[in-house]
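Model it.
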Amino acid sequence: MVKRGLYGQTVTVYHPVAAKKRVDKFVLREVFCQLGSREVPDAAGAKRGAAMLLVVPETERTRFGTGYKLAAGDRVLLGDGPEVAWADWGGFVPAEVDGLGVITYVLPLYLRGGLHHVEAGAWWSAGGAGAGRLAR
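Modeled.
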């Protein structure tokens, strides 16, 4: 069951296909997405990094792997975003585009043997480590 209060956002996922020099665009509706940053003070000042969480429930409209793709390096924009040409991919970064995040991990989650939802995001800690450290 999808709870409309939590999954009420629209995002655009941009997936680069280097071999074909193109950027695939997937508009996902009824998802949850939160973009932000994290700042950790240290002796030299503060370290700042990105934080992002995208949750895509498995539904008839959003089928992971067939209806859309998610991979580390993909970019997520809040709302229904524009097309992005391969030539523009290098400049399509969070520092230049408001509301844009870069995926660093993708985690499909299962319930009773079937895919329930997919979490993707960027997680940063003071030591510069992120979700990759959890997999070790």
